[in-house]
Amino acid sequence: KQEVTQIPAALSVPEGENLVLNCSFTDSAIYNLQWFRQDPGKGLTSLLLIQSSQREQTSGRLNASLDKSSGRSTLYIAASQPGDSATYLCAVNTGANSKLTFGKGITLSVRP
Amino acid sequence: DTEVTQTPKHLVMGMTNKKSLKCEQHMGHRAMYWYKQKAKKPPELMFVYSYEKLSINESVPSRFSPECPNSSLLNLHLHALQPEDSALYLCASSQGLARGLAKNIQYFGAGTRLSVL
Q1: Which of A59, A65, A92, B5 is the most buried (most CB within 10 A)?
Q2: B43 and A34: CB-CB below 8 Å?
Q3: Is A57 in CB contact (< 8 Å) with chain B?
Q4: A32-78, pLDDT tens digit by residue?
């Protein structure tokens, strides 16, 4: 059974800092991994999707990497801003029916 | 347009009520999903529809009844719910269920916050 872990559960950083959010998964037989952002009480916004054959994806100040063999992904956020404060979830797709298994998320607070 | 629209945004219902949640997308996606999310927990998959047919039911109690009347619309009918069913219900869609490059990105709606009294 696939398990996805995100540690720490919460992170507080000063504005402008570059930061890395970690995600690990137990079964390396994945089709893709997706990073989401969730604001309090809101739905999920897809940030980046990395296919199993890819090593990284970039969008603006965000860069996600994938090391399938070691069961790890990182989300790098450059020059963090208070508007980046949210919960970041990673989810892996291991099933033929596109079933996503989510981590519990990392709640990020960027202090002005 | 990558919008998935869910209505209502908030719903309060009693344990004897019957209500429905609605989800709509106009991206031409052929796979649609219902997730349940409790506070400070990750979303949990409930149902998956592919080409308007139920593909996955994650052993969800029968008091939750999904319906996909057409490729753009997904409903979740609720009956005789329990207070522990109070949660954020999220709908998502994707191009399909294939394992190809772009098809697996799931786009989520803002959710319906359900309170069962």
Answers
A1: A92
A2: no
A3: no
A4: 999 999 998 888 999 999 988 899 999 999 999 999 999 999 999 99
A28 and A68 Cβ atoms separated by less than 8 Å:
yes
Cα dihedral value B11, B16, B22, B23, nearest 10: 80
Give the position of tokens 């991206």: B27
Mutating which of A44, A88, A106 best tests the B interface, going by the most B Cβ atoms within 10 A? A44
A50 at interface of B, judged by CB pairs closer than 8 A: no
Per-residue model confidence as pLDDT tens digits over B17-26: 899 999 999 9
Q: H or E element: which one contains A101?
A: strand A100-102
> Which of B41, B45, B108 lies at the smallest CB-CB distance from A44?
B108
First to last CA, chain B: 36
